Amino acid sequence: MKVIKYFLIAVGYLVAFIVITFLVAQISDSLISDQQIEQFARYFGVYGIENILDLYFDTSMITSSIIAILIICLCRIYICWRTSTLTK
C-alpha cells in the first residue's frame, strides 16, 4: 500500500511539473517580442533563424522548468508548514 501511495505522489508531482512548466512557457512567450529574442541571440553571438529559435526555445524551457520546480518546492514547504502548525 505504501508503494502505491508514493507512486501516486510521484505521478502528482510529475503532472504538476508538466502543467506549471507549460503555463510559464506560454506566459513568457506572450510577453517577449521578436526583437527581444533577436537581441538576446545577438548577445550570445547566435545568428540564423533556426539557431535563434533553438536558443530561445532551450532557454525558455530551462527557465520554465526552474520556475516550476521552485513553485512545487514552495508549495511543498507551505503544506508541510501548515500541517505541522495544525497538529500542534
Written description of the protein model:
The chain has helices at 2-31, 34-43, 49-87. The chain is an all-alpha fold and 88 residues long. The protein is built from 3 helices and no strands.
Q: Segments where pLDDT lies below 50 for 5+ residues?
A: none
Mean pLDDT metric:
88
Which range best describes the helical content: under 10%, 10-25%, 25-40%, 40-55%, 55-70% or over 70%?
A: over 70%
The count of β-strands is 0
Q: Which overall shape is indicated by the principal axes computed on the Cα atoms?
A: elongated
- Radius of gyration from the CA trace? 18 Å
What kind of sheet is the major sheet?
A: none
For the termini, the CA-CA separation is 28 Å
Number of helices: 3
Strand content: under 5%
Helices and strands, in order, run as HHH
Secondary-structure-based class equals mainly alpha
Question: What's this entry about, in short?
Answer:
The chain is mainly alpha-helical.
How is this fold's topology laid out?
Blueprint: H1 2-31, H2 34-43, H3 49-87
Task: Please name the defining characteristics of this protein.
single chain, mainly alpha, 3 helices, 90% helix
